[in-house]
Structures are given as C-alpha cells and as structure tokens.
C-alpha cells in the first residue's frame, strides 16, 4: 500500500494545511519523529498524534488556480531565471497555496480541497 510521505507533509506544516483523520478535519501542527500531530481533540489514545497512513491532507489541484495565481505561476522565475533559490521559493509558494504539485490526489494520498476551504488564508 502506498502512503503519503512525511516529507510531503513536513513542508506544509507552516502553511496551515488541514488533514482528515477518518473522523474529522484538523490543522496539521507538526511532525514528531514518525508521527503526525494534528490539532484534534485529545483522545484516550494518541493525544492528537497519528501514523502518517492514518491521515490525508486537503490539497488544491493545480487546475483550481485563480487567474491571479496563474499569472504568478507563469511569471514566477521569469525575472531572475531559474536557480536553486527560485525553485525553493516556487515550492514554498505552491505549499502556501495548498497546491497538489506531486499529484497526491490522483494517487489517493490526499483529498481535493473543497472550493473556498483555504480562501481566507490566501486572500
């Protein structure tokens, strides 16, 4: 069985990505060794810590970009050319806008975010 990788989540911790744990939707707070920490109610077991295969992040498909985001996407590295810092900034931008640039939704490792789920964060 294929599971999402911790690296797919770790770069999204600071972006406020929301994850589904099989019961509810909770903000990703961090990763502690091999466990994912969600802002979920404290249960008798786990205290909001999950194995990575227990959760799925809500991500936006690239096809959901707004016109403004498309302009940013198309012009991202055009001013300075593509170099290492541009690529890092570009991936940070994709993460901060909750885009599924690793095709995790089609692999069943993430859930397509409902329209407007992250709207207030990126406005």
Structure description:
It is a single chain. Strand 2 and strand 3 form a beta hairpin. The protein has a 6-stranded mixed beta sheet with strand order 4-3-2-1-5-6. The mean pLDDT is 86. The protein has helices spanning 6-10, 67-75, 84-96, 119-122; strands spanning 18-20, 25-32, 35-38, 49-51, 56-59, 111-112. It starts with 5 loop residues before the first helix and ends with a helix. It contains 4 helices and 6 strands. With 123 residues, it is an alpha+beta fold.
Concise overview:
By secondary structure, the protein is α+β, with helices and mostly antiparallel strands. It is 25% helix and 20% strand.
Main beta sheet strand tally, sense and closure? 6 strands, mixed
Query: What structural category arises from helix and sheet content?
Result: alpha+beta
Strand content: 15-25%
> Helical proportion?
25-40%
How many helices in DSSP terms? 4
Distance between the termini: 37 Å
Sequence of strands across the biggest β-sheet: 4-3-2-1-5-6
Instruction: Compute the number of strand runs.
Output: 6
Unreliable stretches covering 5 or more consecutive residues? none
Rg calculated over all Cα atoms: 15 Å
Give the helices and strands as they follow along the chain.
Answer: HEEEEEHHEH
Shape: globular
Mean of all residue-level pLDDT scores: 86
